[in-house]
Fold this sequence. Notes:
By secondary structure, the chain is of the alpha+beta class. It folds into four domains: about 1-50, no CATH class; about 55-245, no CATH class; about 265-280 and about 290-475, no CATH class; about 480-530, no CATH class. The protein has helices at about 10-30, 65, 80-95, 105-110, 140-145, 195-200, 220-230, 320-345, 390-395, 410-420, 480-485, 495-500, 505; strands at about 55, 70, 135, 150-155, 160-165, 175-180, 185-190, 210, 220, 265-275, 290-305, 310-320, 375-380, 385-390, 400-405, 430-435, 440-455, 460-470. The strands form five sheets. A seven-stranded mixed beta sheet has the order 12-11-10-15-18-17-16. A five-stranded mixed beta sheet has the order 2-7-6-4-5, with helices on both faces. It has a two-stranded antiparallel sheet with strand order 1-3.
Amino acid sequence: MQIVYTDGLSEEEFFESVQHIVNVVSMYATSGSGWIIEKVEKLEIRFAKFNPIRGSTYIALRTELSALKCLLNIRNFNDPNCFLYCFTAAYNLQGKGCPLTQPGDRYSEKTNPATYARSNPLTHQAVGDFPMPMPIDKISAFERCNEVKVNGFRYEKKSLYPFRISNPNSDFVVDLLLITDGERYHYVLITDLVNLVRKVQGRQIDARAKICRNCFHVCSNNETLQKHEKLCYQFETCQVLLPEPDSNSLAFKKFQAKTTLPLVVYFDLESIIVPVSSVEQNPQTLETRVLDKHIPSGYCYVAISHGSPNLEFFHLYRGEDCMQVFVKQTETLAKDIYEKKQKHRYFTGAVGQAKELATHCWICETSCSADNEKVLDHCPFSNQFLGWAHSKCNLQRRTQSFVPIIAHNLSGYDLHHVVKSLHHCNPNNKFSIIPQTDENYISFSFKVWIKDIVNKNQNVIPIYEELRFIDSLRFMQSSLDKLVQFLPADSFDILDNHFEYCDQNDVKLLHGKGFYPYSYMDTFRKFKLKKLPPK
């Protein structure tokens, strides 16, 4: 969306806006978003009357502000020059000109616009011709002409906050409070900002303290204030809203994120690297030269249940059709998981704790002494007793509807081979991809069709078991070789048990990366060799 401030939209401005939209769409599609713009359905142009914020004629202060003796509200009923009056009054109050008022003068004399008007020869008037009421976008030019810093503040809902903070380096600072009655705006001069912040916010601030106008942070002297402002002024002004006393605490509520997943699948695949013979590349072209072709040669996946030392599912396969077999086995895995979930849908195991002995909910860890508050919670996959919980907590702690399948560098390598073989699966299955680019996917969901059921309204509802492929490299930004080095030697129980009849010195080679001869294994025939050739 582009906003144009003008009395009329010219043809040139219209086509510039259209070209801006085209450029944004082009950059979005080519910067790796993964989305493709098919068409622009409509182009909408809206016209609205713009009423900019401009300080104008006099508006009375609110009751809570009028009692504060740190504001000067000049009563300009007949002209919109409140901005200029505040500038002149600030110049005088900071001792830069002739005194216009005396401490004993009445408040009506101090707020009389004639005291600060051009007709008074003692006043210091602003340099430059600026429209009145003063628009906010013209204040910067006013500052440059008059070597002044003009800061703007608002007061709403009994809260004071800045809306415009100036950066020019000047020792003449004008702090203005912008008030409104709903239709008009009016500037009020802040004569003592520290006192105003102390009274509005109810803070104990020393009268000699220095305050940051951008965030109202209090400093003891000018040196610490300058160090603070150097960092603070890098950020835009904002309003700080503190919570109410009865809602100023945070409590953890997403209990479903607290529990571990009942089942996780890990997989990896290997490929043979076949050299590709091609003609020499022309250095004048930008074509990519293909050196090798990666052909999947085998895969392995293991499914581990939380709290169990044994494998729930395991499959290892090698062959030229390994990816077709992988897709079929993935469907079988999903169906086996579904059947196991249905088998333990209702708890049939041993209760680990008597109901009357449970005094706290195992999920939220708060008291649940009454027996009618407690319900039994169990794992629908392993049929394991988890504990006694509040009924509400038990409903909130929903087990993940999907089973994660995790591979390292899945997005950059493994998933490319998987996606190419999906046409071998059941056509009733569903897929969904979260892309990062056209060739790089963040995650991939594989919903395996299990069966169709008919509900009471005679509608056919398909039942799916979702397997979600996740890249562990997005959570652990390091190679497998480095990650494995952090593991102790006794952390490879599954691997060691699988090769328990092999020489343990050879098995230890499998505890790391870099020993497999990728460049040598370029055909499936070499898998039949009993040993590798000499170096």
